[in-house]
Amino acid sequence: MTTVAAYAAPAPKAPLERTTIERRAVGEFDVLIDIKFAGICHSDIHQAQDGWGPGIFPMVPGHEIAGIVSEVGSGVTKYAVGDRVGVGCMVDSCRECVNCAAGLEQYCLKGGPTWTYNDTGKDGEPTYGGYSEQVVVDENYVVRIPEGLSLDVAAPLLCAGITTYSPLKHWNAGPGKKVAVVGLGGLGHMGVKIAHALGAEVTVLSQSLRKKDDGLRLGADHYYATSDPDTFEELAGTFDIILNTVSAPLDFSAYVALLRTDGTMVNVGLPEEPVQIVLQTMFGQRRSMSSSGIGGIAETQEMLDFCAEHSLGAEIELIGADRINEAYERVQAGDVRYRFVIDAATI
Ligand SMILES: [Zn+2]
Ligand SMILES: [Zn+2]
């Protein structure tokens, strides 16, 4: 075991503070990663505040990890010391169920995958995330960060990137398709970049026009304010795909009415309460309402390669670890363009 510095929430809703944690010894198929950068995802805040039910404390959040391999186990074949690598939301799964066999480890049927933090590993120990100096991960749950991507702007791709890439691919975003992205935050800004790079015609649906210049610069073709009722009239029956990245409850029927026949609204932002929808809105045009969670390991690698090929990094604000609590407050206030990334050298 190795003792490493980390930032942890000692209890639900408590500010994060500097501490130390134990990382397991590097096993036969493990990779030891010197963490260079860790993104701050909104779900880090939800979990540190017990928003998704009782968490495991102390909690070291962070599932947008980019770093350099500093040691490998004797059985490791995929990575070598010095490799640039990433770790996302999961660090293990059963590896045997049909979903794991199909590369859908995020939908592992044996109780889900082992999450990068706020979970219990196969060794019975709590998992700790990326707000730390080092992490030990089985090589099968590590991905390679291509040379064309800087590690700091690559880190948020490990959650925000794959969470938007996977549904856009699954529902065939591409040339000739009209994609709406609801919300221009950490997830939404990557949704815009990726949908644009896939060749789709991209519209941002945001509460106001406050970030319109950014949206167009990031690749959107159109930008509408959802606070303006005319928007819903003008865009009725328009989109093949609506990618909703907002976790606040919406008038879902109003959004679904913006889909064309056979269109799908896929929700990657999750309200805490059950949602309501008028089914007639779907019935009339065979529309669908769906949801999607991150992506598998192979698809995460595919996303990183795609982003490198198209020079798509996240838009980030790099901070020292002593500013994590301030960053949490700013994320909750919607005051970040578009992802905070912790410089792990400051932990
Ligand atoms: Zn996340
Ligand atoms: Zn499985």
From TrEMBL:
Belongs to the zinc-containing alcohol dehydrogenase family. The lineage of its organism: Bacteria, Bacillati, Actinomycetota, Actinomycetes, Kitasatosporales. SUPFAM superfamilies: GroES-like, NAD(P)-binding Rossmann-fold domains. This is alcohol dehydrogenase (NADP(+)). It comes from the Bacteria. Its cofactor is Zn(2+). Residues 14-342 form the Enoyl reductase (ER) domain. It holds the Pfam family ADH_zinc_N. It catalyses: a primary alcohol + NADP(+) = an aldehyde + NADPH + H(+). It is an enzyme of class 1 (oxidoreductase). Keywords: Metal-binding, Oxidoreductase, Zinc. PROSITE patterns: ADH_ZINC. Coiled coil: none annotated. The keyword Zinc applies. Its EC number is 1.1.1.2.
